[in-house]
Specification:
By secondary structure, this protein is α/β, with parallel strands linked by helices. The chain has a single domain, classed as 4-Layer Sandwich (Metallo-beta-lactamase, Chain A). It is 35% helix and 25% strand. The chain has eight helices and twelve strands. The strands form two sheets. It has a seven-stranded mixed sheet with strand order 1-2-3-4-5-6-7. Strands 8-9-10-11-12 form a five-stranded mixed sheet, covered by helices on one side. The chain is globular and about 60 Å long. The N and C termini lie far apart (43 Å). 44% of the residues are buried.
Length: 277
Amino acid sequence: MTGIWTEIGDRVLVGRYRFYDQDIVAVLGGDEALVVDTRSTPRQARELLDDLGTQGIGRVGLVVNTHGHHDHAFGNSVFRPAVIWGHERCATMIRDGGERQRALATAELPLLAAELAEVVLDPPDRTFAERVTLDLGGRRIDLDYLGRGHTDNDIVVRIPDADVLCAGDLLENGAPPYFGDGFPIDWPVTVEALLGLVGERTVVVPGHGDPAGRAFVESSLAAFRAIATLAARIHAGELSLEEATRIAPYPADAAGEPLERALAQLRGELDAPPAPA
Protein backbone atom coordinates (compact mmCIF):
# COMPACT_ATOMS: atom_id res chain seq x y z
CA MET A 1 0.00 0.00 0.00
CA THR A 2 2.19 2.83 -1.26
CA GLY A 3 1.61 6.48 -0.61
CA ILE A 4 0.34 9.12 -3.00
CA TRP A 5 2.99 11.80 -3.33
CA THR A 6 2.50 15.48 -4.12
CA GLU A 7 4.98 18.34 -4.32
CA ILE A 8 3.62 21.09 -2.05
CA GLY A 9 6.59 23.45 -2.24
CA ASP A 10 10.01 23.75 -3.83
CA ARG A 11 11.54 20.26 -3.38
CA VAL A 12 9.08 19.49 -0.56
CA LEU A 13 6.89 16.43 -1.08
CA VAL A 14 4.13 14.97 1.05
CA GLY A 15 3.21 11.31 0.88
CA ARG A 16 -0.32 10.39 1.93
CA TYR A 17 -0.73 6.86 3.33
CA ARG A 18 -4.10 5.18 3.73
CA PHE A 19 -2.99 3.52 6.97
CA TYR A 20 -4.04 6.06 9.64
CA ASP A 21 -4.50 8.57 6.76
CA GLN A 22 -0.96 9.68 7.58
CA ASP A 23 1.19 12.37 5.99
CA ILE A 24 4.94 11.88 5.56
CA VAL A 25 7.05 14.81 4.34
CA ALA A 26 10.32 14.62 2.42
CA VAL A 27 12.55 17.64 1.85
CA LEU A 28 15.40 17.67 -0.66
CA GLY A 29 18.53 19.72 -0.12
CA GLY A 30 21.87 19.29 -1.84
CA ASP A 31 22.55 15.60 -2.38
CA GLU A 32 20.46 14.32 0.54
CA ALA A 33 16.94 14.37 1.92
CA LEU A 34 15.22 14.93 5.23
CA VAL A 35 12.19 12.83 6.14
CA VAL A 36 9.60 13.84 8.73
CA ASP A 37 8.38 10.75 10.65
CA THR A 38 8.99 7.08 9.85
CA ARG A 39 5.62 5.27 10.24
CA SER A 40 4.63 2.34 12.47
CA THR A 41 6.69 -0.75 11.61
CA PRO A 42 9.87 -1.75 9.81
CA ARG A 43 7.83 -2.98 6.81
CA GLN A 44 6.03 0.35 6.57
CA ALA A 45 9.34 2.19 6.85
CA ARG A 46 10.86 0.09 4.06
CA GLU A 47 7.79 0.80 1.94
CA LEU A 48 8.37 4.49 2.60
CA LEU A 49 11.99 4.21 1.49
CA ASP A 50 10.90 2.41 -1.68
CA ASP A 51 8.37 5.17 -2.38
CA LEU A 52 11.03 7.81 -1.90
CA GLY A 53 13.13 6.03 -4.49
CA THR A 54 10.29 6.20 -7.00
CA GLN A 55 10.22 9.96 -6.40
CA GLY A 56 13.91 10.22 -7.29
CA ILE A 57 14.97 10.65 -3.67
CA GLY A 58 18.14 8.80 -2.82
CA ARG A 59 20.08 9.19 0.42
CA VAL A 60 18.09 10.17 3.51
CA GLY A 61 20.63 11.90 5.73
CA LEU A 62 18.27 13.41 8.29
CA VAL A 63 15.07 12.21 9.95
CA VAL A 64 12.83 14.21 12.28
CA ASN A 65 10.30 12.69 14.67
CA THR A 66 7.48 15.15 15.33
CA HIS A 67 6.75 13.23 18.56
CA GLY A 68 7.26 9.83 20.08
CA HIS A 69 4.10 7.93 19.16
CA HIS A 70 4.53 4.58 17.46
CA ASP A 71 3.01 5.64 14.13
CA HIS A 72 5.59 8.42 13.80
CA ALA A 73 8.74 6.81 15.16
CA PHE A 74 8.65 3.00 15.16
CA GLY A 75 10.25 2.89 11.71
CA ASN A 76 13.31 4.83 12.88
CA SER A 77 15.83 1.98 12.85
CA VAL A 78 15.23 1.31 9.14
CA PHE A 79 16.53 4.79 8.30
CA ARG A 80 19.89 4.40 10.00
CA PRO A 81 22.62 5.53 9.60
CA ALA A 82 20.63 8.76 9.14
CA VAL A 83 20.79 11.23 12.02
CA ILE A 84 17.44 11.34 13.82
CA TRP A 85 16.25 14.52 15.54
CA GLY A 86 13.45 14.99 18.05
CA HIS A 87 12.52 16.76 21.24
CA GLU A 88 14.37 15.55 24.31
CA ARG A 89 11.13 14.11 25.73
CA CYS A 90 10.45 12.33 22.43
CA ALA A 91 13.57 10.26 23.09
CA THR A 92 12.32 9.58 26.62
CA MET A 93 8.87 8.59 25.36
CA ILE A 94 10.32 6.02 22.97
CA ARG A 95 13.02 4.73 25.29
CA ASP A 96 10.92 4.47 28.47
CA GLY A 97 7.44 4.04 27.02
CA GLY A 98 8.12 2.19 23.80
CA GLU A 99 7.28 -1.27 25.08
CA ARG A 100 3.98 -0.02 26.49
CA GLN A 101 3.20 1.54 23.12
CA ARG A 102 4.08 -1.69 21.36
CA ALA A 103 1.70 -3.63 23.61
CA LEU A 104 -1.15 -1.15 23.12
CA ALA A 105 -0.65 -1.04 19.35
CA THR A 106 -0.55 -4.84 19.17
CA ALA A 107 -3.83 -5.07 21.07
CA GLU A 108 -5.42 -2.45 18.81
CA LEU A 109 -3.95 -3.81 15.57
CA PRO A 110 -3.62 -7.61 15.92
CA LEU A 111 -3.01 -8.04 12.20
CA LEU A 112 0.22 -6.04 12.66
CA ALA A 113 1.38 -8.00 15.69
CA ALA A 114 4.23 -9.75 13.87
CA GLU A 115 5.45 -6.50 12.35
CA LEU A 116 5.27 -4.66 15.66
CA ALA A 117 7.28 -7.46 17.28
CA GLU A 118 10.11 -6.67 14.82
CA VAL A 119 10.33 -3.02 15.83
CA VAL A 120 13.70 -1.98 17.22
CA LEU A 121 13.05 0.93 19.56
CA ASP A 122 15.42 3.60 18.27
CA PRO A 123 14.97 7.04 19.86
CA PRO A 124 16.33 10.22 18.29
CA ASP A 125 20.06 10.53 18.84
CA ARG A 126 19.99 14.34 18.48
CA THR A 127 17.62 16.18 20.80
CA PHE A 128 16.78 19.73 21.80
CA ALA A 129 14.57 21.56 24.30
CA GLU A 130 13.20 24.67 22.58
CA ARG A 131 14.53 25.26 19.07
CA VAL A 132 17.22 24.13 16.67
CA THR A 133 18.06 24.96 13.06
CA LEU A 134 19.34 22.24 10.75
CA ASP A 135 21.35 22.61 7.54
CA LEU A 136 20.09 20.38 4.73
CA GLY A 137 22.59 20.91 1.93
CA GLY A 138 22.49 24.67 2.46
CA ARG A 139 18.76 24.66 3.07
CA ARG A 140 17.47 25.87 6.44
CA ILE A 141 15.09 23.66 8.45
CA ASP A 142 13.72 24.98 11.77
CA LEU A 143 12.51 22.68 14.54
CA ASP A 144 10.41 24.36 17.24
CA TYR A 145 8.91 23.14 20.49
CA LEU A 146 5.94 25.39 21.21
CA GLY A 147 4.44 23.70 24.26
CA ARG A 148 2.42 20.68 25.27
CA GLY A 149 -0.51 19.53 23.16
CA HIS A 150 -1.01 16.11 21.61
CA THR A 151 1.87 14.92 23.84
CA ASP A 152 4.49 16.64 25.97
CA ASN A 153 7.04 16.45 23.13
CA ASP A 154 5.35 17.68 19.92
CA ILE A 155 7.48 19.80 17.62
CA VAL A 156 6.82 21.60 14.35
CA VAL A 157 9.12 21.44 11.35
CA ARG A 158 9.42 24.57 9.22
CA ILE A 159 10.91 24.87 5.73
CA PRO A 160 11.05 28.67 5.40
CA ASP A 161 12.15 28.94 1.78
CA ALA A 162 9.15 26.82 0.69
CA ASP A 163 6.71 28.30 3.25
CA VAL A 164 5.76 24.84 4.52
CA LEU A 165 5.07 23.93 8.15
CA CYS A 166 4.76 20.33 9.33
CA ALA A 167 2.55 20.33 12.41
CA GLY A 168 2.71 16.66 13.33
CA ASP A 169 -0.26 15.59 15.43
CA LEU A 170 -0.73 19.00 16.98
CA LEU A 171 -3.20 19.22 14.10
CA GLU A 172 -5.32 16.58 12.41
CA ASN A 173 -7.55 17.27 9.43
CA GLY A 174 -10.77 15.37 8.88
CA ALA A 175 -11.06 13.68 12.27
CA PRO A 176 -10.80 14.65 15.96
CA PRO A 177 -7.22 14.47 17.25
CA TYR A 178 -6.16 11.75 19.65
CA PHE A 179 -6.19 13.14 23.22
CA GLY A 180 -5.09 10.02 25.10
CA ASP A 181 -1.61 11.39 25.87
CA GLY A 182 -2.63 15.02 25.43
CA PHE A 183 -2.75 18.16 27.52
CA PRO A 184 -6.03 19.81 26.48
CA ILE A 185 -5.63 22.84 28.74
CA ASP A 186 -2.21 23.66 27.21
CA TRP A 187 -3.08 22.67 23.66
CA PRO A 188 -4.84 25.93 22.66
CA VAL A 189 -1.86 28.04 23.77
CA THR A 190 0.50 25.80 21.80
CA VAL A 191 -1.60 26.00 18.63
CA GLU A 192 -1.90 29.76 19.08
CA ALA A 193 1.90 29.91 18.98
CA LEU A 194 1.85 27.67 15.90
CA LEU A 195 -0.62 30.02 14.24
CA GLY A 196 1.89 32.82 14.75
CA LEU A 197 4.25 30.95 12.42
CA VAL A 198 1.64 30.56 9.66
CA GLY A 199 1.34 33.16 6.92
CA GLU A 200 -1.42 33.64 4.40
CA ARG A 201 0.25 31.31 1.89
CA THR A 202 1.84 28.79 4.25
CA VAL A 203 1.08 25.13 3.50
CA VAL A 204 0.36 23.42 6.82
CA VAL A 205 0.82 19.65 6.83
CA PRO A 206 -1.02 17.92 9.68
CA GLY A 207 0.04 14.54 10.98
CA HIS A 208 -3.06 13.04 9.39
CA GLY A 209 -5.42 14.33 6.71
CA ASP A 210 -5.28 16.94 3.98
CA PRO A 211 -2.60 19.65 3.99
CA ALA A 212 -4.31 22.98 4.41
CA GLY A 213 -3.71 26.63 5.30
CA ARG A 214 -4.22 29.27 7.94
CA ALA A 215 -8.02 28.94 8.08
CA PHE A 216 -7.67 25.27 9.03
CA VAL A 217 -5.32 26.16 11.89
CA GLU A 218 -7.76 28.83 13.09
CA SER A 219 -10.71 26.41 13.09
CA SER A 220 -8.65 23.78 14.91
CA LEU A 221 -7.63 26.37 17.50
CA ALA A 222 -11.28 27.30 18.06
CA ALA A 223 -12.11 23.65 18.77
CA PHE A 224 -9.22 23.28 21.23
CA ARG A 225 -10.28 26.45 23.03
CA ALA A 226 -13.85 25.17 23.24
CA ILE A 227 -12.73 21.91 24.87
CA ALA A 228 -10.60 23.77 27.44
CA THR A 229 -13.46 26.18 28.22
CA LEU A 230 -16.04 23.41 28.58
CA ALA A 231 -13.74 21.43 30.86
CA ALA A 232 -13.21 24.51 33.05
CA ARG A 233 -16.97 24.92 33.34
CA ILE A 234 -17.41 21.27 34.32
CA HIS A 235 -14.60 21.62 36.84
CA ALA A 236 -16.35 24.69 38.31
CA GLY A 237 -19.66 22.84 38.60
CA GLU A 238 -21.41 24.88 35.91
CA LEU A 239 -21.96 21.98 33.50
CA SER A 240 -22.16 18.21 33.67
CA LEU A 241 -19.90 16.08 31.51
CA GLU A 242 -22.96 14.86 29.64
CA GLU A 243 -24.10 18.43 28.91
CA ALA A 244 -20.62 19.45 27.77
CA THR A 245 -20.37 16.42 25.49
CA ARG A 246 -23.52 17.46 23.68
CA ILE A 247 -22.18 20.94 22.85
CA ALA A 248 -18.52 20.05 22.29
CA PRO A 249 -16.93 20.76 18.88
CA TYR A 250 -16.43 17.05 18.20
CA PRO A 251 -19.00 14.27 17.64
CA ALA A 252 -20.52 12.97 20.86
CA ASP A 253 -18.70 9.64 20.60
CA ALA A 254 -15.36 11.48 20.35
CA ALA A 255 -15.91 14.36 22.79
CA GLY A 256 -15.69 12.41 26.03
CA GLU A 257 -11.98 11.62 25.82
CA PRO A 258 -10.72 15.21 25.43
CA LEU A 259 -13.08 16.50 28.13
CA GLU A 260 -12.09 13.79 30.60
CA ARG A 261 -8.42 14.31 29.84
CA ALA A 262 -8.83 18.07 30.34
CA LEU A 263 -10.56 17.47 33.66
CA ALA A 264 -7.69 15.23 34.75
CA GLN A 265 -5.27 18.03 33.90
CA LEU A 266 -7.34 20.58 35.83
CA ARG A 267 -7.28 18.26 38.85
CA GLY A 268 -3.48 18.17 38.60
CA GLU A 269 -3.38 14.47 37.84
CA LEU A 270 -1.30 14.74 34.65
CA ASP A 271 1.52 16.58 36.41
CA ALA A 272 1.56 14.41 39.50
CA PRO A 273 4.83 12.59 40.26
CA PRO A 274 4.82 8.87 39.50
CA ALA A 275 3.62 6.59 42.28
CA PRO A 276 6.35 4.77 44.20
CA ALA A 277 7.11 1.30 42.87
